[in-house]
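Appendix B, example 12.
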Amino acid sequence: MEDLNLVMRERLKKATELEQEGVALFPNRYPVSNRIKDLLATFGSSPAEELEGQTDAYTVAGRIVAIRSFGKSIFMHLLDSGQKLQCYIQQNQLDEESYRLSKKLDIGDIIRVQGPLFRTRTNELTLLAKEVVLLSKNLRPLPEKYHGLKDVEVRYRQRYVDLIVNDEVRETFRKRAEIIQTVRRFLMDRGFLEVETPMMQPIPGGATAKPFKTFHNALGMELFLRIAPELYLKRLLVGGFERVFELNRNFRNEGVSTQHNPEFTMLEFYQAYATFEELISLTEELFGAVAMAVNHGSLSVPFQGQVIDLTPPWARYRFNEVLVEIGNIPRSAVEDPDQTMKLAGSMGFEPNRLEGHGKLLTKIFDLVVEPKLIQPTFITHYPLEVSPLSRRNESDPTLVDRFELFVAGKEMANAFSELNDPRDQRERFLHQLQARQAGDEEAHLMDEDYLRALEYGMPPAAGEGIGIDRVVMLFTDSPSIRDVILFPHLKPEKKM
């Protein structure tokens, strides 16, 4: 810290000297006509002889990430949007003011340089500076080049520095944007309408989760940051939009881990006159489209030392069957509630009065099955108890027509045929209210307006939610959700 303060004092001193010499440290009226990436794309393969004949001058701007001085000559590398270009500054090519400024520049300064292009003896494309202007003075030094920014928490907290010094981090977020664009195009090409629904809701619904609370002064009412857009999107099905989707921010007042952030991005889409089986095929197509777009046209995705094969069709198991076949749970312990309870106790978690048979089975599933689902796998026909918004299975009313997708031991998607019977939905909400009154803070609230919407008639439909952050983790080989969120939530900084 003492070394940092010393460097910052030196830079502040240098900044003061520049201002006394009449140099503006943060000017704003200097247009930049060329991007480094465009020059590299156009002239990256041009031979030296071709460049020698050009008289055009180009104007670029970027952050200085390297400086090498040789007497009256200076070589600098400028960084702009992840692309670097070398600039050559020579005393006899500049006016006295620009050259004097160039001698006082630091790594981290943002400058504007104008001049023609040429190739050096080492054949590197280089801009010969005819004019140099300081655009933004760096007062805090960047991490040292070879050691970089290694402290993980500092990287997350100071993402702006992380992006400057780590090329692979910039690539992760460039790829994230490409994934989202691909998802959007995929759905729009299939007739889905992108919509926006409220992020502040009077009743948090669409998932079982603890919400964040806020208060609207003008309306005099308590509001909640949404835990899911589901109930609003299904209101749109009632209104006549037959295919809708939203790329949305959700907020859940839950724990933080490598897989969970209180604020996260979800894709939710709903299709009238479809069933959950149809969404299985659509999901395989969607992940395939993303893979082809961002994974160099391959359906084989490297992830944390494994290769995930996205070639359809993917494995499918019914919920109860997978507990037996992959979880190695005795069938009797799956089917008999008393034995399920004994098994749960032997696994280290004691059942409480809020948990029925289905909820216990899902906890067992999370422990003994989910980590083993490495290749993409659909798990279908979940217990009714843990699916308050799903349509009952016609053959077995204790189950629902639902699937979850697991890849690399993580849940990626949740989908079901939608419950559109307002009478059944009211009963489900009442059961959730009973659980809430008994102490379950994540149980679903009663939503009378949603029930009213269903009473007008919602077409049979299927809907799905996909965790975008986890999809990005998969396609960028990132072990933590914090690696794919630009500004993840962290505990407050400790004061020094």
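The mean pLDDT is 93. The longest strand covers residues 58-70.
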